[in-house]
């Protein structure tokens, strides 16, 4: 069996590794022109379930490299006011002490570089899919914009939110604008910037709930491995220059109708001023973090989400990750769900390759289960980022914010409630 994978993102590369280790012939086609292309985004959060799925897909040596290039795991997950007052704080070590490798933070570009190792002869760049064609003999041919083509037995669309595979395979699938806009950036971690964070903020990840439905996230990325680490250099000498610098990242979002102006098309300097305008009256440490951010690192993002699909008739063309279930970052579930897809689809395709299950039946089993858990993840993620929510209204939003904070403070004070709330949060990210 030969599997064509369209897209060399996290999910597509994880799937490629799993299949290659099982002896399945694979080829990955990526629209980016080069492996080090800026794929957007600085940090991706990998949950314990995401790490388990990744470990099931890639060789042990590669998993060790992934762990070595991650930032230290966050100890706390904090919910704060815009004045940085604590509303709810989970101690992750206490809440899930047996989770594999804990919660991880990794730079998206670095993760891609890790996952490309061992696939150098299997990934082809500068390949933008134009269309694909199914044939009566059960084969499928992918045709690319440069005039080239490739033929295999299975085609997997792992080509992200703008998926060309989804457009042809499921033309009824659609994305919707959540009405939420965001901007964010990062600053180098120095004595000065570190002093802006409390101990729990520095050692964890913090979400801020502010009036008018505005929200923010702050995360510190401190890497245990440095370029001068002799152990890392001895094991992966060719990867030393790819190691990341310590930094503090921030993101800010809100409903379009509450933004002073549309961030689309603004320069980095203008986005920084917009961030300061939105956070007027917030804690001075947060504003200082925004003020110290280099304009070149600040970008804006429109929040879109997929509309959950009903089951379709399965074939030898399928989808994974953002190509089939784009979701907002409201629950941090996007990359983790893609990894879950890769591990599940990989197992099904290996079973088909080994004759233990008919091919289309194997793909159908994957699609049924994938739709089940991804639909919940999409819906839960949207709840956190929907401009239609009452939280974004001037008066009723303040009432709702006060009530929400009150409930969270109650949960924070009662250990049993806190454990239950933590389990619910992690369940959406793939934890049973």
Automatic annotation (TrEMBL):
Name recorded for this polypeptide: 2-polyprenyl-6-methoxyphenol hydroxylase-like FAD-dependent oxidoreductase
Record flagged with keyword Oxidoreductase: yes
UniProt keywords, alphabetically: FAD, Flavoprotein, Monooxygenase, Oxidoreductase
Molecular function as annotated in GO: FAD binding; monooxygenase activity
Superkingdom field: Bacteria
Family annotation (InterPro entries): FAD-bd (IPR002938), FAD/NAD-bd_sf (IPR036188)
Domain (FAD-binding) ranges: 301-380
A matching Pfam family: FAD_binding_3
Native organism: Rhizobium fabae
